[in-house]
Amino acid sequence: MHSTFRRRTLVLATIAGALFFTGSAAFAQDNNKTAIKVGVSVGNGEQIFEVVKKVAAKDGLNIQVVVFNDYQLPNAALASGDLDANAFQHQPFLDNQNKARGFDIVPVGLTITAPLGFYSRKIKSIDQLPDGASVGIQNDPSNGNRALLLLQTAGLITLKPDAVKNNNATPLDVVSNPKKLKLVALDAAQLPRSLDDLAIAAINNDYAEKAGLSLAKDAVIKEAPKSPYANLIAVRRADKDKPWAKRLVAAYQSAEVKSFIETQFKGSLVPAF
User: Fold this and answer.
1) Would 270 disulfide with which of 68, 113, 231, 240, CB 3.0-4.6 Å?
2) What is the pLDDT of residue 29?
3) How many CB atoms lie within 10 A of CB 224?
4) Using an 8 Å Cβ cutoff, are 270 and 44 in contact?
5) DSSP codes of every residue in 179-239
6) Phi, psi of 168 (to 5 degrees)
7) What's the sign of the alpha-carbon dihedral 259, 241, 72, 98?
8) pLDDT at 30
9) Secondary structure (3-state) at 45
10) Which pLDDT does position 137 carry in this prediction?
């Protein structure tokens, strides 16, 4: 009995040691990752990450960029483990997605501010906007709120004070609309394609660029360069302190990337770091 007990103890100890070794090795491997997948939005996000990739490679971090043309997909891909990180959204959008879809995604570093603009194929100045005009805004809560705030800043509508304070304005919160504008909520990616049917439309910077629109030249209303809508790099909460996440942020917030943004986009995108 004593010999049998010793053999069983040895077997259990061996198994426990193997499990500990395997777990430790996996932990070390995850912490010392040298290759990651990062989701970005189509357009300027792709351009910037070409520079980020080169900077990160010098530090031994290989970045595979996965491009999305829909704002609803990158967080789902990150939450499911298909991505290690993404870089396409601002904090209000992330907060809304976490709440609405049950994600546990957190920011680890700021990237750019992309001022929002209203564009038109029918008017050259907002003073030319006719009464009863159809105005396109995004149908997701955070960007829709942002577009409504910009319309209020331009003096076209007035929103309920509580909605402005809480950053959750919807068309139902409009309390004054002297020009009787018709607010049309569409998916952000559809707004550039709908410009022919709308008097003006709020278009996010990446979609505007893809459609050949310039914030400086073509926007009839635009946000100030500094706004609370700075974009960010996001990861799953479990990865927020991983060395590779810190190296990714360091690569993005490097002098080379900052210089590229300032030179390439000339104010249509502004470094937020």
Assistant:
1) 113
2) 54
3) 9
4) no
5) T--EEEEE-GGGTGGGGGGSSEEEE-HHHHHHTT--HHHHEEEE--SS-S-EEEEEEEGGG
6) -135, 35
7) negative
8) 61
9) helix
10) 98
pLDDT averaged over 10-residue windows placed end to end, the chain, 273 residues: 46 46 49 93 94 98 96 97 97 94 98 95 97 97 96 98 94 98 97 97 92 92 86 98 98 98 91 94
Give yes or no for a contact between 120 and 196, defined as CB atoms under 8 angstroms apart: no
The amino acid at residue 3 is S
For tokens 């996965």, name the residue.
66
Distances (CA, A) of 141 to 13, 24, 95, 244: 55, 43, 10, 32
Burial class (CB in 10 A: 0-12, 13-18, 19+), 184: middle
Q: What is the three-class DSSP state of 147?
A: helix
- Cβ-Cβ contacts under 8 Å for 67 (sequence gap 6 or more): 39, 40, 41, 42, 45, 46
- Model pLDDT, residue 227: 77
pLDDT, position 64: 98
What is the pTM (predicted TM-score) of this model?
A: 0.77
Residue 58, both tokens: 């010098």
Output the pLDDT for position 235: 98
Encoding tokens for residue 97?
């997605």
Instruction: Enter the tokens of residue 80.
Output: 């499911």
- Please, are residues 236 and 104 in contact by the beta-carbon 8 Å criterion? yes
Radius of gyration of the chain (CA): 24
Which of 54, 28, 61, 46 lies closest to 247, judged by CA? 61
- CA nearest neighbour of 65 among 91, 94, 81, 85: 85
**Structure-token pair, residue 59:** 């530090």
Which element (helix H / strand E) includes 32? none
